[in-house]
Amino acid sequence: MRDWSHAEHVRATGVEIGRMADVLRDADMSTPVRTCPGWNLAELTTHLGGLHRWVAAMVRDLAERPYDRNGTDPGLPADPGGYPAWLGEGAGPLSEALLSQDPQAPMWSWGGERRVGFWSRRQLHEAVVHRVDAELALGLPVSIDEDVAADGVEEFLEVLPYVRWNPGVAELRGAGETISLQADTGAGWVVTLDPDRFHHQRSLQPGTVTVRTTTSADLLLVLWGRRSADDYAVEGDAGLLGWWREHTGI
């Protein structure tokens, strides 16, 4: 695994937004997105493109509190056929806003890091997961760069404690049980359930339950609920893994 800079996260975000815009070009925007129940491609696209514009505005202003996402006009085209291009156009202003600020500059975020750098990383992995959603909806092959995916696994584990809108996260406690996430590429993490919290560390050790996949991309999709853990090797207490997955929806 490698460590990422703020600028690298921003550049990779732009690449991922462009990839999703390409995936959506000429697609039927009414296609259901099975990994986001109740949404179609149009709703998935407007969610992500609106998010980019919302984040860009807050980063530009170093906002101390969240802006009203419904309070500004994102410039959405009247014709859904224009949504893919509109999505792609949002990458430029988002990148410019993020690169214009010191990644350590304080601002509001919903995670543990109240600084600009939270948003460059969060927007990368938001774009990756929703690009996968679009590809799965259209029956296209899914591919995620290994370095991006490994960073995404760690980012998921870092932000999970702050997912206040899922009450199940507050129940992720235990008596030292461990969930081990291992990829054949050499990336690995172990989550430990303590009586008052859960925490994670990079580790290649097995756990109370261990999930073994080919790549970090597989692990990322399992964590985000885009793939079933049943598709991969599970060793140990499968019930613990099922309980973890039930409580970790973001």
Order of helices and strands: HHHHHHEEEEHEH
- Determine the N-to-C terminus distance: 24 Å
Taken together, the total number of domains comes to 2
What are the segments in which pLDDT stays under 50 over at least 5 consecutive residues?
none
Which of globular, elongated, flat, extended, rod-shaped describes the shape? Answer: globular
Query: What is the arithmetic mean of pLDDT?
Result: 96
As a percent range, the share of helical residues equals 40-55%
Question: What features would you describe in this structure?
Answer:
The chain has helices spanning 6-24, 41-61, 83-89, 91-99, 116-137, 146-159, 216-223, 238-246; strands at residues 177-183, 188-193, 198-202, 209-213, 233-236. Strands 3-2-1-4-5 form a 5-stranded mixed sheet. It has 2 domains: 6-143, dinb family like domain (Four Helix Bundle (Hemerythrin (Met), subunit A)); 150-246, Nonspecific Lipid-transfer Protein, Chain A (2-Layer Sandwich), CATH 3.30.1050. By secondary structure, it is of the alpha+beta class. A hairpin with a 4-residue loop joins strand 1 and strand 2 (188-193). The radius of gyration is 18 Å and the shape is globular. The protein is built from 8 helices and 5 strands. Residues 11-134 form the Mycothiol-dependent maleylpyruvate isomerase metal-binding domain.
